[in-house]
């Protein structure tokens, strides 16, 4: 009788924390390459199954013909992306705080996020001169994402970042563009007080050769083409989506209210200013009136507006009873103003669709969630931003139809906002989001949701989950994903990281989460803590 021996003592626990080891290939690929699932090259696959005892020489065996199994169903839930800091690539064109970035990407990959999004700033890439592109930092960042198994959403940012040189995240338009805007001030958006806004070139000169012989559309087109050629090896596999910047903040809108003010408390009471008083926009308005044969509407703009007013009933244009917005002239002006914005977006979508056709990349554009006068008749803050959305008219459906024409995805925020926390009773972020989602569903658009405020409290994350259920796009073959804006040091703090990883599991398929983590259920907590330790040691972003 063999002697019974005690099991060997367990190996001493290591005192160092390590990231969970990642598989060299995704689980699905391992299964697909196994001989159990794929016939060898020495024999042809058969649609029949032979059971034990079956054969050609009797034995009562029988060959059953079984149809091939159906393809696996798409996993439930929505993939989660994380937007990297705006200065992930610094003004000099190199990855900032590279060690911290590598540790942060490793943490995000271990948490189960699908990928990262980051802006490729016009003011960084083409800073040296017209047609001189420096993609080195962004190529490095894409390679780092690929190393950690993350997909990339590239945001082509043709707008400025930050409020001015005093802002630590200040990234202006290329200097040579600003020089042209100084020579010709009407290249800037202009309100009726002749106040200029240089966040983005006025769409009134889209097709005019005002940038040293090129039009803004030609400059945007050359930028996209250079990006496509430079990132050719990444497109479709790593870079799966290209979001085209279409205005201030990257959104398809006018700068009716400066972008930095939109994030300040109290901005929700501003009505905004129409941005149509540069000479190019005025010429377009005049031509539009002339086509309609209404000479008296050829000059000027909206009347009876005052964006500094906080009470819309004190303005003759926006008030509910007898406001100019609901008069023949008001409808003429708003149709032209919003139509110019849609035309600008269509020009960019057409260019992007042509350049990225056949690359396997999805193109997308972003619409702003301007919700602070949603429960009014005129929706003034939406009108001044270029969305002709009132109690009597749907202003988002024309934009969604334009996106659908080019198979572009729609990106919008407000997914984390609740009506219950609003400061203005006329505001409704949930109502605005429902209308945007409804337009996307009606046009079968892929939808990318975003949070409007960077926070990780339970109430906000639960609101994102509830808002995401508004879009049931999978039944129609379209898709939904969520983009968390944006990564910072607080994301990796103990309690925030715990809430975030739980949120990722709730949003995406739990099986995918466990496969990416490559650990048993009982080890999830340890892996998350290891990630936090590594990121904190790497001096993550502040």
Automatic annotation (TrEMBL):
Swiss-Prot/TrEMBL catalytic activity = Hydrolysis of (1->4)-alpha-D-glucosidic linkages in polysaccharides so as to remove successive maltose units from the non-reducing ends of the chains
For bias type Pro residues, the affected ranges are 1-12, 66-78
Q: Which residues form the signal peptide?
A: none
Report the GO molecular function annotations: beta-amylase activity
The UniProt entry, under InterPro entries, shows:
GH (IPR017853), Glyco_hydro_14 (IPR001554)
Provide ranges: composition bias, Low complexity: 27-54
Instruction: Give a GO biological-process term.
Output: polysaccharide catabolic process
- Superkingdom of this entry's organism? Eukaryota
Annotated region Disordered: where? 1-78
| Active-site annotation | 251, 450
Family label: Belongs to the glycosyl hydrolase 14 family.
User: What is the name of the protein in this document?
Assistant: Beta-amylase
What organism is recorded for this protein?
Urochloa decumbens
**Which taxonomic lineage is given here?**
Eukaryota, Viridiplantae, Streptophyta, Embryophyta, Tracheophyta
């Amino acid at each position: 009788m063999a002697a019974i021996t005690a099991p060997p003592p367990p190996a001493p626990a290591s005192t160092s924390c390590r990231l969970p080891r990642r598989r060299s290939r995704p689980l699905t690929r391992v299964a697909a390459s196994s001989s159990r699932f794929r016939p060898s090259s020495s024999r042809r696959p058969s649609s029949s199954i032979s059971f034990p005892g079956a054969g050609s020489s009797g034995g009562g065996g029988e060959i059953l013909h079984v149809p091939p199994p159906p393809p696996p169903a798409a996993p439930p839930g929505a993939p989660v992306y994380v937007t990297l800091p705006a200065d992930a690539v610094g003004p000099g064109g190199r990855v900032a705080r590279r060690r911290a970035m590598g540790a942060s990407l490793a943490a995000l990959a271990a948490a189960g996020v699908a990928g990262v999004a980051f802006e490729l700033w016009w003011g960084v890439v083409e800073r040296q001169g017209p047609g001189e592109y420096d993609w080195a930092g962004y190529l490095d960042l894409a390679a780092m994402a690929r190393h950690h198994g993350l997909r990339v959403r590239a945001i082509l940012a043709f707008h400025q970042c930050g409020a001015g040189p005093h802002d630590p995240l200040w990234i202006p338009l290329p200097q040579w563009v600003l020089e042209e805007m100084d020579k010709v001030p009407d290249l800037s958006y202009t309100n009726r007080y002749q106040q200029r806004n240089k966040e983005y070139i006025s769409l009134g000169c889209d097709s005019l050769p005002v940038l040293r012989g090129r039009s803004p559309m030609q400059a945007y087109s050359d930028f996209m083409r250079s990006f496509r050629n430079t990132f050719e090896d990444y497109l479709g596999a790593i870079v799966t989506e290209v979001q085209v910047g279409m205005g201030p903040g990257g959104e398809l809108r006018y700068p009716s209210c400066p972008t930095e003010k939109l994030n300040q408390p109290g901005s929700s009471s501003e009505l905004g200013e129409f941005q149509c008083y540069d000479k190019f926009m005025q010429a377009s308005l005049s031509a539009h009136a002339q086509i309609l044969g209404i000479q008296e509407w050829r000059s000027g703009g909206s009347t009876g507006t005052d964006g500094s007013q906080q009470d819309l009933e004190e303005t003759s244009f926006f008030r509910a009873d007898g406001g100019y917005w609901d008069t023949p002239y008001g409808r003429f002006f708003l149709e032209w103003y919003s139509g110019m914005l849609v035309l600008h977006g269509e020009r960019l979508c057409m260019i992007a669709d042509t350049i990225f056709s056949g690359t396997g990349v999805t193109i997308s554009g972003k619409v702003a969630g301007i919700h602070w006068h949603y429960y009014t008749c005129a929706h003034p803050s939406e009108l001044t931003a270029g969305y002709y959305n009132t109690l009597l008219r749907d202003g988002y459906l024309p934009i969604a139809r334009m996106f659908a024409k080019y198979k572009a995805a729609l990106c919008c925020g407000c997914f984390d906002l609740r009506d219950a926390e609003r400061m203005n009773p006329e505001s409704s972020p949930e109502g605005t989001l429902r209308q945007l989602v409804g337009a996307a569903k009606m046009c079968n658009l892929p939808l990318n949701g975003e949070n409007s405020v960077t926070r990780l409290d339970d109430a906000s994350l639960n609101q994102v989950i509830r808002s995401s259920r508004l879009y049931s796009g999978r039944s129609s073959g379209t898709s939904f994903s969520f983009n968390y804006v944006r990564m910072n040091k607080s994301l990796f703090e103990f309690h925030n990281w715990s809430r975030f990883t739980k949120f990722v599991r709730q949003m995406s398929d739990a099986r995918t989460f466990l496969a990416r983590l490559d650990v048993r259920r009982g080890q999830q907590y340890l892996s998350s803590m290891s990630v936090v330790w590594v990121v904190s040691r790497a001096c993550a972003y502040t």
